Write the structure tokens for this entry.
Amino acid sequence: MNSCFLSISCIYQFIKNNIFTLHYTKEQMRLLFSAKSGMIASGFVFPIIIFFIYKGQIDFHLLAIWVILQMATFFLRWYINHKAEMLPPKEDIALYYKYLKWYLFTVFINSFLWGLLSLPIFMYTSETYILFYFILLCGMASASVATLGMILHAVYIFVISIILTTIIALVFIGSTKLYFVMGIMFLFYLIIMLLASYKMYETMRKNIQQKYEIEKSHNLINDSINYAALIQSSILPDENILRNFCLDSFVYWKPKDTVGGDIYFIRQITPDEVIIMIIDGAGHGVPGAFLTMLFKAIEERIAAEIKSGILTPDPGELLSYFNKSIKIMLRQEKRSSSNAGFDGAILYYNKKTNQCKFAGAKTPLYIINDGKMEVIKSDRKSVGFSRTKLEQTYTQHEVSIKKGTKLYITTDGILDQEGKDGDRFGKKRFEKLILDICDKPFNEQSSVIQKQLSKFEGTCQQSDDITITGFEFC
């Protein structure tokens, strides 16, 4: 007795949850509204075929009225589909359900008309025509599982109404063995179709749910990355500091992704002294962005130790300090798998003494005087990384500054950028470009560099983070 009540309860819950309640996502409903093949077949193509096949068997006027009703239902459903497809994805789901209910109404009318046609077919036609109609109904019922499968109610309405109406017609007219056999077959067929449709619906629902969860996860990741970009932007220095030391300057910073591994720091240590650091961290995207936060922490410590007199503001010494700090913090001296570091350059300028110093790690300094370029090469050792020694030293260069001297530092992002012809932008093209534009104001130079780079890229994607700087000290 308990098992009987349990079975009845399960059946009741199934009917309540799957028949009397609409619980579909917007994506399911949009898929239904966009599926037009079954609608065209059952509401337009097949009725015309039926008309020409049965016009000599069934009263012409009766058949014509049936076709007209099918056509009217077809155009009504087409209109509902069109209106529903125009709904924006962010529209309130209640409006989607409104159109779904109207759609289900047209499905019921369409399938009821097909079932109703069985009455005159069973009454006035021969067994051959009856069998043809039987096969046609089975085919349409099977096709409905595929075309309406994303909405269980649509399948139920179509399959149940078309088959039950036909079975009722068989019972009402039935007088031969053929009708009896067809009625039994239709009952079994109805059960099979309902089970198949529910199984397909469950599969589709799970697929949509998985897709939704993946999209939700991607959205959360994107939101996190976008927030990380705000954090990374917040640690970029105020370029207005350079106004105290430069007649003109520019900084062009463009990560490959939302966040990047390139970073630059501008630190005023006294009213007359400034340090400029250009850093190209290993990798790009999220891993590179994590490294920039580490570099910022070290830069803050450098500033504090310079202020306290522990460190001197010499670029070579500062690169060595960076190197040792990275290797200790990431435990690289103990063969850690964290093989991270950066290529970059540090520039020191004292406007009172007009003294300028430079040190670089795989990042040269470009100097232009009187239209001629001089390149101060950097050391071929990166900062950090497991292969770099803990006590690595970097060569420091004294840079002569006079009126009109212009200095440029760039990470390798622009140099390694691939173009539409498969070649790289390269050093020669970069050097020629800055020589050609060095007489322009720096804001114009930055604009020209960006335009030339974009033209060179063509349809290619940006391949690395890009940082380009230019200075003309006072």
